[in-house]
Write a structure and sequence with these properties.
The chain has 224 residues and is mainly α. It is built from ten helices and three strands, in the order αααααααβααββα. Helices cover 56% and strands 4% of the residues. It is elongated and about 60 Å long.
Length: 224
Amino acid sequence: MTKSGLDHVVAIVKAGLSAVPMVGGVIASLIGDYIPDSTSRSVLESLHLLTERLCALEDRIDIHAVDKEEFSELFKSSYLVLVRAHKAERRRAAVNLIVNILLRPDDPDRLSYTELDHFARSLDVLSIGALRCAGEVYRGCALPKAGEEERLGRLNFKDLAVRLPGYETDLLMGLLGELNAQNIVHLPGVPSIRTKRYGNYPIERTGLGSRFVARLLAEGENIS
C-alpha cells in the first residue's frame, strides 16, 4: 500500500472510531496526538479491534469517569506495544488493556490503574511465546477441590509440555521464567526429588495471573 493510500485508510478508521456513539469521538480525540498520519498495518488492525470492543462494551463504559492522565499514560504504554506487535495475541492484549480503564468504576471486570500499569509493562517485556504459555497454564491448571479455595491451581511441567508440543524443553522453562518474573505464574522451586527434563517441576496459578489472562488475553471463558 502506498503512503497516500495508507494515510487514507487511517483517516477512514479514525472516522469510524469517531462514529461510535457516546464514547468513540472522545476516545478518538484522546488518542489523536499519538497516532501518526502514516502507521503500520498492525496499528490499523488494532484500531479496528478497538472500535469493535468499544461498540460491544458501550453500555459498560463511562467516559466521564476516566482519569485522563491515567488513560494517557496507559495509552502511550499500550501504543508502544502495538507499534511493535506483529502477533494477534499481543495486539488483542494491548487493546483490552486500553478498554479496561474505560469501564465504569463499579464494573466487576475493571482493574485498578496500578495493576493495569503493571500489565502494560508486562506486555512490553513478555515474549509472544510467554503469552501463549500463560494461556495454556491457565487452561491446564487443576482447579482447587472443595475446601481448598485458597489454592489457585497448579500443574506439572510435563503436563504443560504436552499442551505445547512445539516448544523445546529448555525454551519452555525460559518462557515460564519470564512469567514468573511478572508473577503471572508462580514457580515454587526445585522439587526435592527431580524427574528428567523438569517433568515434575510445579507451576502454580496466581490471582494476578488469573486477571491478566482473563482480562487481557481474552481467555476468561476457559478459566475460573
